[in-house]
Structure formats: C-alpha cells, structure tokens
Amino acid sequence: MTELNKSKSTVKNTLKSSWLTFFYVGIKDDVFSEDTRRVFIINLFTSVGVIFTLPLSLLSLYQGKLTLGLSLFSIAVLYALNHVYLRRTHNHSLSGNFVIYPLYILMIYLVYSGGVNGTGHVWIYCVPAVALFLHGMNKGLIELSFFTLALIIVMYFFGGHFEELGYHEALKSRIIFSFIVVVFLSGIYEYSISRFNFELKETTNKLKLVANTDVLTELLNRRGMLQRLEASSQKSFHLLLADVDFFKRINDEYGHDAGDYALTELSQIFRVSLPENDSAARWGGEEFLIALCNKTESEAFMFAEALRQRVEAFEFVYLDHRFKLTLSFGVATMNATTTLREAITLADNRLYQAKRSGRNQTRRA
Ligand SMILES: Nc1nc2c(ncn2[C@@H]2O[C@H](COP(=O)(O)OP(=O)(O)OP(=O)(O)O)[C@@H](O)[C@H]2O)c(=O)[nH]1
C-alpha cells in the first residue's frame, strides 16, 4: 500500500470511529443489542432533530414568529442536552422520553398553529415510527391512539387556519386516515422486526449453549469453561484437573456404552458435589476440569480429596456390569502472579505426577 493510500485509509478509519463513537455515545461492546440500537437511534434522531429544528427556529424568530421560533429552539436545546445526558448515563428509556414527548407536543402544536404557511401537519408522519420504536408495540400503540385523538380534536375544534388558508374540507379527514395507515404500517414493521430480533436472540442463545456444552455429559466443554473463566470477575480460583484412571479398560471390558455411562455418572457426581457458583467441565475424553473460587488452597485440595474418595467408593452399575473407578487429580491456583493458561499447565503437570506415582491421588504444589 502506498503512503497516500495508507493515510487515506487512516483518515477514513478515524472518521468512521469518531462517527460511531458519537452516535453510540462511546458504547463499544455489544453494538447489536436492542438497548444499544435504541441508544443509537435516539441519538441519531436527536442529532437530526437539532439539524432541522435549529435553523427552522432561527428562521421563525427572524420572521417574527416568536412562539413557533421559541418552541423549535427549546426542542433543539432539549435534544442537544439529551445527547449529553445519554453520553453520560446510557439511560435510553429516560432519554427516549425526552425525544418522544416533546415530539408529540411539537407535532400537535404544529397542527394547531399551522406551522409555516399551514404546512405544519406534513411533519406528523414521523411520529408513528419513532413512538413504536422507542416505546414498543403496546405502549407505542396506546400513545399513538391518544395522539390521533388529540389530532382530531385540534384539527376539528381548533385548526382555524385550515379554513383560513382555503384548504378543501376533505383534507382533515385525509390527514387522519393517512396517519392511521402510517401507524398501521409502522406497527407491522415494528412487530416483524421485534419478532425477528426475538427469534435471533433465542437462536443465538441456543447456539451459544450448544457450542459451549459437552453433548454426552451436558457439562461445559473446554471452550465453554475457558470462556467462563476468562470472563469471570474472580481474580483467583483453584483448578482441579481430574483424569479417570485406566479408563480404557472400562471400554475394553464392558464396551464403549458402559464407558459413556461412567462419564455421565461421574459428571453427575461432580455436579452435586460442587458448591454454587463453581463450575465443572469435560476438558477432554476422560478428563475433567473443576474451577473453585472462595476457597483457600488447602480447602481446594481437601475438596479434590473428598471428591476422589467419593468416586472411589461409588459403584457404577451398567446393565449387569458392576465396576469401580478412581480419579487422579492435579491442583493449581490461578492468581495475580499465575495466569489462567499457566495454572492449567501446572494442574496438568501435577496430574501427570499423580499418574506417575500410582494414580488415585491428588497432587498440588
Ligand atoms: N466410552 C468413551 N470412551 C472415551 C471417550 N473419550 C475418550 N474415551 C476413551 O478413554 C480412553 C483413554 O485411554 P488412555 O488415554 O490410554 O488412558 P487410561 O486408560 O484412562 O489410562 P490412564 O489415564 O493412564 O490412567 C481411551 O480408550 C478413549 O477411547 C468417550 O467419550 N466415551
């Protein structure tokens, strides 16, 4: 890439990132979530609102239309403040109210006053989409019903300019009907989008679950465990790496299905033995990783020993086969000085030592 192309692409990237930072008010994670989408749309709407209302307010003030000018100016200021508020708090529900309620009032005022040369009513068609997006189907439709009622009252009882400007009598009813059509279409659109988003979220959650779960034991798999540990807010936890001793013999003597059954039973023993908030994963074939937090190093060791003895005492019964199993454990601690990867390697080394020293035992530092 030439120097010119490089600097062009840097400028383009900088512009794009400042544009996104502005509209996402600095939110960088999870930009596809419904909440972040709302923040984005509110901000976009308020920015466009300022761009339109500020010049129009200045024009109206210049033309001596004091009330209209001041109303538009207040909206522009409110929208600008809304951006600052949203940037500081990311609170889109309150911020959304700052957008929609002034918008209702402004639209009713425009229809009531006629706006510039009786054109005020042409702006009302932006209301349904914004109301439904910000407040959802139910609340949005209720508010739009009240808004339509207010429109009817204002046009039929206070909209004197319709007659003064010589509009045809049919215009009022056409405005109401066309507004209702836009509400209807926006409602269908909002419904299908939220339905689609719901399905997408459900499918994504299912896929995440499948991707992070072991099919046989239904414990976390290696990927799921690593993700959980990496995302954990805990600064320190103890890792217990367990491997079934001579597992090959179970497969060879009783068949692969008996081996599968043994792995499932073992997982169940882990599940019921684990304290709440701690996790167990199937780390590989007959290898399991348990992560314990809120325990001292010797408590973690004792937990591994207790689990080992529990498995040793357990009788596995599959069809007419009865057999026993033992586990070897390697224990290591992840903390400020030892990273997760290092702790896993240490646990693995200690598990290897446990195997070399005769199996059915727990090794720690
Ligand atoms: N039934 C069944 N067997 C599995 C599964 N995953 C791995 N294995 C078996 O686990 C056995 C592991 O054997 P080895 O690695 O030799 O270890 P081991 O027999 O447990 O001996 P040590 O670990 O040295 O005590 C292999 O026979 C694999 O086929 C599984 O999902 N189901």
Structure description:
- The chain is an alpha+beta fold and 365 residues long.
- It folds into two domains: 32-208, no CATH class; 222-363, Reverse transcriptase/Diguanylate cyclase domain (Alpha-Beta Plaits, 2-Layer Sandwich), CATH 3.30.70.270.
- Helix content is 67%, strand content 10%.
- It has twelve helices and seven strands.
- Strands 2-3-1-6-7 form a five-stranded mixed β-sheet, with helices on both faces. A two-stranded antiparallel ribbon has the order 4-5.
- Helix 2 runs antiparallel to helix 3.
- The radius of gyration is 33 Å and the shape is elongated.
Question: What is this entry, summarized?
Answer:
The chain is of the alpha+beta class and 365 residues long. It has helices at residues 3-23, 34-62, 66-89, 92-113, 127-158, 160-164, 170-212, 222-231, 247-254, 256-273, 297-313, 340-356; strands at 237-244, 279-284, 287-292, 316-318, 321-323, 327-334, 362-363. The mean pLDDT is 90.
